[in-house]
């Protein structure tokens, strides 16, 4: 029995409440396939017998369609009894520190080789699109040298507050469009950030991860600085990163830098799986000619990077005036309900990220937290 086929079958079952499929909605947990038994838990947003029964039958039917001999065992999980973090389970190699973020199921790093390719734009719009398809999402803007989340989400000038939790001071994230957000831009001025080096930078990233009041989340999206450096290192040394999404533009120059960024995740010590690639600024479509595509930066960069990283092209985002305007105005383009082309492009990326994350969690154990070596 092939686990991928079973996941695909479950991806055909829709949550009757939202119309989103069970895999995209992140509702299937602990899938175990030991022929002829297929066992998994459905995490349900509500407790309602009809609803439970409907989903149970739909799952049985979808799996029996592919494997008529299967014994399907569906466990239902109550809303008040959240699942253990799927990406935070048993890690391989060496004793592990206690997980600082047990309430977060998936930590997804958004990375690029060079600046300006639209990494922050992807992080923000992807976070909002994941929220729209039913995920509970938070955003950590760790791009210390050029934090964009405050501007992109209309939070400029606001400061997070500090609250005592069991006697310890903790930072309360700000909220934008229903999403908890922390940004280095809330606490460090960009001119201060450029002089920050290793240990100070690590301290800030660790603090944002360990000393912030993050609510239970399906996804924490982390916008990394471009390239490879101290922030990337302190991230993988602090938490188990579920996967990375690589952002590139189609042209060759962006691609060669993106390959360097990709290689960092594949280092033997790091081993963060690449969930896929988002190609940004794939083509230009003028507002007045919505059906025309002009390939200003060439073609195929995303496809090539997906192949090199052994992952998939999660989606292509066109170069659209509304995306830049949305970034500058504090209302990201994804929220513009009239711009269906842009919305569809972001939704496709979000659905693919959700599916790839679910597949990754079923196929692989949690990413080990990189141990700090004492030299
Ligand atoms: N698809 C797009 N269409 C139009 N403008 C875009 C698109 N993607 C990004 N931009 C714009 O390009 C500029 C750079 O984007 P962004 O800040 O997201 O890049 P970045 O890779 O995060 O850069 P850095 O890491 O240097 O901060 C922004 O003004 C943004 O609004």
TrEMBL record:
Keyword Membrane found: no
Region Disordered: start-end pairs: 76-98
Keyword Iron-sulfur: yes
Occurrences of domain MIP18 family-like (ranges): 5-74
SUPFAM superfamilies found in the cross-reference section: Fe-S cluster assembly (FSCA) domain-like, P-loop containing nucleoside triphosphate hydrolases
Matching InterPro entries: FSCA_dom_sf, MIP18-like, Mrp-like_CS, Mrp/NBP35_ATP-bd, NUBPL-like, P-loop_NTPase, YlxH/NBP35
Alphabetical UniProt keywords: ATP-binding, Hydrolase, Iron, Iron-sulfur, Metal-binding, Nucleotide-binding
Molecular function per GO: ATP binding
Binding site for ATP: 113-120
Family: In the C-terminal section; belongs to the Mrp/NBP35 ATP-binding proteins family. In the N-terminal section; belongs to the MIP18 family.
Function (record text): Binds and transfers iron-sulfur (Fe-S) clusters to target apoproteins. Can hydrolyze ATP.
HAMAP family per record: Mrp_NBP35 (MF_02040)
Subunit structure of this chain's protein: Homodimer.
Protein name per the record: Iron-sulfur cluster carrier protein
Taxonomic lineage: Bacteria, Pseudomonadati, Bacteroidota, Saprospiria, Saprospirales
